[in-house]
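Researcher: I'd like a structural prediction for the single chain below. Treat it as a standalone chain; there are no partners to consider.
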Amino acid sequence: MRDLARDSEGQPVRDVQARLHALGFRTDPDEQGHFGTGTEAAVREFQQRRHLIVDGVVGPTTWQEMVEAGHVLGDRVVYLRYPMVRGDDVRTLQARLNSFGFDAGREDGIFGPRTDRALREFQRNVGMPDDGIAGDSTVQAFARLRPEAREPVAPALREREALRQLSPVQMLGAVIAIDPGHGAEDPGAAGPTGLLESGVAYQLAEALAAELRARGAAPLLLRGADDDPAPSVRARAANDAGARLLIGLHLNSQAEPEAEGTTVFYCGREDWSSPAGQRLAELIQRELTALGLVDGRTHPKWLPILRETRMPAVRVEPCFITNPREEAALRDPVFHDRIVVAVADAVDAYFAGSEPGGDEQERPSPTDPLSAEADSVRS
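Model: Treating it as a single chain, here is the predicted structure.
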């Protein structure tokens, strides 16, 4: 679908407004078929609640989330098929299976083989035909046993146990997926002088791959310089390769050119987040802010590349490409190297089992990493 934003018109806008209304988000009745300020505010509220990038634009990810949010367990029959069924009803099914001790894995709202195995095991244990079909009889079986458990405890416990078993030797030969954001068809944001996010992201990815390879890991780039695979394709490539970690590289953007700093996202939503992803994100953020970059903190996000991967995954946004000073720095290979070494140091620390706020060697006082680049631009 084409992106819908302010001043878009027509039936697609009406469809968005109808879904927002059905989900309990207020839209201006005077804006029917017109994407006005009220519709934009409702879209932003929906994105915020679903832990998406909050930009007020209905692109493929936001639209997919609107569709998935409309499904309630019991309203339709769900089972394993391809393409896989997605929706909040699947997420509820996974949560209930996990709460009863049947391992449905991460509660990602995607009905995959692990959910199918857990459902069949549940059905056998309660004396139902183990057909892997979640319909009325499965919902009734849940209701007979005990009320729904709201907190997704099991997936987080498994991740925390995996964190306790980490050791530096595990980094040797470990496949680490690196996802340069955007691509040929979607270059992403542009800086004041025309620097493109997709190009910088790919340069950083290549440099990070070389650095991690030198440290004994086996980096895997998820796109080429001229490619632009869909997020699901990238996630599947990382899963198929058995990657231990995924590091996405993007650049932030904002209408206000003064916006600056570094931010790292990890997989999470309103009632759950990945402990391992959060650990990696906080370690990367610690290393980047030690360079003197402004701390934009870490945040849970429910983005396809984070949600659909089966390993701890983060999306790193080291700078705002729309900030003239930071854009100038991003043209400097020396600054690229500093970012890459910081991220690689964080990966080292992750495999060593370091805590983001734990003991660490004394660091020099951070200096402004952009001052030299800014001075060169001014001169």
